[in-house]
Amino acid sequence: MEKNGLRLYGIRINIVFLLYYKPKSYLMKRILLFVLLTTPFFTLKSQVKIVEWGGQMVTADASLPVPSIITVNINGDTITDRETRTAFNEVIPLNITGGSYKSFEIPLHFAFLGYSLNSGGGFDTWSITNSGNSDYLNMRYQESTPATLHALFFFKKTDFLTTGSSKIYLDSTSSFSRSFTNFEHLDTARFILKDNGQYYISESIGSSLTFATGASDGNWALYNPADTLDFFDDTAAFLPRNFTDITAVGVLVDDDNWYTGRRWIHLSQINVTARMSIEPTLTSPAAGVYLSGDTIDLAATVNSVNPVTTVKFYDNSTLIGTDNIAPYELSWLPAAIGKRNVYVVAYDNLGDSVRSAVVKVDIRDVKIIAPLSGAVYSEGDTVTVTALNVVPGPGLKLYLYTGSTLRDSLTAAPFTFKWQVTQYGTYNIYIKAVNDVPSVSISDTVSITVNNVPPTVSLTFPVNNDKFPLGDTVIATATAVAPYGTITRVEFNNGSVSYYDNTSPYSYAFYYATTGNYRVRARSRDDANVDSPYSGYANYSMVVFTATVAPATTQVINLSSGTTGSLLTASTNITYTGDVTYRWLWGTDSAVYINEIAGQTASTYMPDFSTVDTLWVVCEATKGTHVDTSNAVKIRVVNITGITPVIDGSSVVVYPNPTNGAISIDGSDISMLEVFDLSGHKLLSFSRNTNYFDLSSLSPGSYLIRIHKGLQTIKKMIVIQ
Fold first, then answer.
1. What confidence tens digit (pLDDT) does each residue in 295-327 have?
2. Fold for domain 456-541?
3. In this structure, CATH architecture of domain 653-720
4. Which of 245, 267, 490, 529 is a Cys-bridge partner for 137, taking CB atoms 3.0 to 4.6 Å apart?
5. pTM of the model
6. Contact (CB, 8 A) for 81 and 73
């Protein structure tokens, strides 16, 4: 039967206790008591074995009757001796409730309080150790008549293993020790172990045993406690042993002395330091912080007595993978972020396994918190990309990618990128973080859209209201700009028909066969097939090329008075005059102009003749193949006396001039106005204080007027049309 007992930190403990005693007044051959304690599922369950009393299999319990007595005569005297015996059976448990006493025919007392089991991997130190004065493992025997006593404390290997099921491997670095706080009225204690199914007892009776091959305490004798607990060292064969599969260790109390009263054992500690037959070590990765998204190299070494068949790598309880051939290595891409416990379990060819120590790693994942997926920008905008969960460390560097294109990098906080987008399209943004571990983390992808900025166009020629001579080709030109792309064409449109130029500088030649008004506008297109808005129309006209000279009225040069006439200015009816040339001609007939005025090639000319005569002057304008002669201007050269030269009349303004017959004089105190022809004859005279004068009675032509203003006389020339 089973009864719940002591909790022992989740460790299973099996303890076998065997007791043999021999009173003097009775022939007691042997008594054996076996105790096995087990603790599955975080609970230490003390169990009493089924024992054999007097050759009969019964359940040992407090309710059992006194064991049967076998009477024999062992020493040959006339007194019948009695022996009480339990058979040694390692697998049948006795129930003993922890923390209480258990009484048998022979008063036997146990207490189990607060013991802890310590165990590690590799070089393991396994121990049952009390944690205070109240913690102990007690056995007390008391008899009213003299008796010998033999007892066995037996601990199975599986009770200590918490990291696997590997065999214990004892070598020169291994040791075995026990500590009795109270060892009262007992003779010797030897070490006992079980190897490959056989029991061996140590020659050493000290408190500590080192497994040094060939040393005296390394000598062992074959022994079977199931036959007898009364060990006879004088006949035992102690030899050096090479143990390969130790499954249990213990202490045998062997006391052949006859003693009446109490025997007391207070076991405070028993330790085994040994090698596991398999010793795995996870050599990579090192404990620390890693970035998600990158492969982590896993590597392990295994020290094993027997051939290693398999090494399994684990992430917490999840199998990462298996390697059956040294070197034991795997590549691991963590499936999730967070704190992970990484370890390996190694197996040998006998099916034994041991787990390595845990390596703690923390997987972090870099994230993009700005911009959000779906954000929209325009060409030329600056996109701010902000990273989260960046783990500073040696060699940390962040890279900003769009697809496979590296855009920027950072090595220090704040981990914010500033990226100017200069090309329309859809971009998948992600951040790659790298450090010296080495470890790499790649963020999730954020998708943004960048809209195209349309191109621009400017029509540079012609300009509005331009006039061109009929027969000329009008070459329209334009400039176009795509701010973040390229121009693929420029369109020239006249309102109904479009013409295209794909190469800069952009132009198109228009030819017209008739005079009239025309128009043109421009539009550009970029490599995204986006068109600019049309420019405004430039309205222009095609005309017959003509030249004109002004003023067209007769000019008078008075040689005696120094009158020179007006400056003559030639013009054409076109606006684009940059390539027009001029030539001035004169003649004595209004229809014949055969004399070129030397040196006069400008568009203006001041008549300069010194011979009294009547002449005509014209200007010949040329533009390309277009030639036209202007209207003729009559020049009269005279030499007339009697007319006082005109005084500067800047303070008096006569208008309009030329006039259709009436003039006004801007000025005060006008007392008289006199009008003369160019020969000096007075034609009209006005004697009144007024500013308005009617000259409509005069024929068209040039006239001299004399204005009397107070005491001042002012002369001016007027033209009547």
1. 889 999 998 878 999 999 999 999 999 999 999
2. Immunoglobulin-like (2.60.40)
3. Sandwich (2.60)
4. 267
5. 0.41
6. yes
